[in-house]
Amino acid sequence: MAVFIGTFENKVDRKGRVSVPVQFRQMLAGQSFQGIVAFRSYRAAAIEACGIDFMERLNDSVSSMDLFSDAHDDLAAIIFADSQQLPFDGDGRIVLPPRLAEHAGIAERAAFVGKGPIFQIWEPDALEAHKEDARARARSQGLTLPLRPNREGGR
């Protein structure tokens, strides 16, 4: 499974094309779909993005819910119904659909932000404000993250 880390800012051209960072493309190499899957974040003015393998994991998780429950219907609507497969062109670019770009306020520049198994695409100034808010919330809540033992059993 891919682990996306780092923040990268790229220019968006007039046709809505933007280069996906090479580090992210390398993490997606070898998957059955050469591109990304993207949908509007329901928590932020950003685009959620991942590889097709993670979408398959999301499908498995949603499929374990009661099929006709409100929770299943809501999650399926905001994730799967809103998702778009965005293939890489020969230069590693994708075309940001206008609906996604408008949701995130992206026009001239896009910031790609690693978030472990997924990444987000933000308007760069909005990302900076979001990161400052996240730092302030983490400090005020005294957040910590216990480190799980590695797979070999050590630390």
Order of SSEs:
EEHEEHHEEHEEH
Oligomer state equals: single chain
The Cα radius of gyration reads 17 Å
Unreliably modeled segments: none
According to CATH, what is the class? Alpha Beta
- Principal-axis shape: globular
Distance between the termini: 21 Å
Task: Give the proportion of residues in helices.
Answer: 25-40%
CATH topology: Chemotaxis protein chec
Count all strands and give the number. Answer: 8
Q: Class by helix and strand content?
A: alpha+beta
As laid out across the biggest beta sheet, the strand order is 1-7-8-4-3-5
Give an overview in words.
By secondary structure, the protein is α+β, with helices and mostly antiparallel strands. It has a single domain, classed as 3-Layer(aba) Sandwich (Chemotaxis protein chec), CATH 3.40.1550.20. Helices cover 35% and strands 24% of the residues. The protein has 5 helices and 8 strands. The protein has helices at 22-28, 52-63, 70-79, 98-104, 124-141; strands spanning 7-11, 17-19, 35-40, 47-50, 84-87, 93-95, 109-115, 118-122. A 6-stranded antiparallel β-sheet has the order 1-7-8-4-3-5. The protein has a two-stranded antiparallel ribbon with strand order 2-6.
